[in-house]
Amino acid sequence: MLESYDIAISELKSRLDNLGLAVEQAVGETAKALATMDVELAKKIYEGDDEIDALVRECMKKDMTIDMLQNPVATDWRNLMATLKILSDMERIADHCADISHYILHLKEYGDPVDQPTGLMEMYAVMSSMVSDVLDFYKGKNSSQADLMKDKDDIVDEAFNRLIAQISEKVKSDPDHSRQYIAYVLIVKYIERMADHANNIAEWVIYREKNQL
Q1: What b/e string do you get for 75-91 counting C-beta neighbours within 10 Å, with b at 16 or more?
Q2: In the chain, where are the structural domains located?
Q3: How far apart are CA 84 and CA 10, in angstroms?
Q4: Which range (22-26, 83-87, 96-100, 127-131) has the least confidence?
Q5: Complete DSSP assignment for 133-177
Q6: Which fold has domain 2-210?
Q7: What DSSP character marks residue 117?
Q8: DSSP 3-state assignment of 112?
Q9: Count of CB atoms within 10 A of residue 11's CB?
Q10: pLDDT per position as a tens digit, 38-81
């Protein structure tokens, strides 16, 4: 039983590492696609989301199998719940990369491009740094600093409010391009949600390690 448990732990770690790399790569590639409006890259991200979903399901299944290989106590159940919640948030981050890529494709289809909202890529960069940091936290690196994620989340929230106000003014002054601006509203919302999911992961890391919510 102990040998089976050790093997399962090793397999889960490997799968989690692969998942973390896949999520971080999706976030990075989405930044490039958004900055350059690269249609081919956006298609690749959109079509690759199913692979990340499959990795998440494998990790969830393996995590539950590990807990069933031993006699679970309160700490085991806390780890199980935290891991499942973290995996769910990872999956949503990847889903939103696909969502943003979907609207990049729409923006290209609409033609007659409009200028990208000022500050959009800066907002994305803060969110991206949150994802990178929290994946390190999840792996046990600098997890004591996970609560600092809230500060970056506040920065993203402030950027969200500014961008929505900016885009709203554009819709009023340039209604002929309202479809393009609405697409950017949705992109901004997805970025804000990705930051929220990164912050959620940090909170679940703290819960897993300190039993604090």
Answers
A1: eeeebbebbebbbebbb
A2: 2-210
A3: 18
A4: 83-87
A5: HHHHHHTTSSGGGGGGHHHHHHHHHHHHHHHHHHHHHHHHH-GGG
A6: Methane Monooxygenase Hydroxylase; Chain G, domain 1 (1.20.58)
A7: P
A8: coil
A9: 15
A10: 999 999 999 999 999 998 888 877 666 665 555 554 455 677 77
Q: Which two tokens stand for residue 203?
A: 């909170």
Residue 120 or 70, more confident: 120
In this predicted structure, which of 41-55, 101-115, 130-144 has the lowest mean pLDDT?
A: 130-144
- Checking if the pLDDT of 211 tops 70, the result is no
H-run or E-run covering 180 = helix 178-210
Contacts of 115 (CB under 8 A, 6+ apart): none
The contacts of residue 86 (CB under 8 Å, 6+ apart) are: 138, 201, 204, 205
pTM reported for the whole predicted model: 0.88
- Going by C-alpha positions, the residue among 89, 115, 97 that lies closest to residue 41 is 97
Question: What DSSP line would sit under 9-76, residue for residue?
Answer: HHHHHHHHHHHHHHHHHHHHHHHHHHHHT-HHHHHHHHHHHHHHHHHHHHHHHHHHHHHHTS---HHH
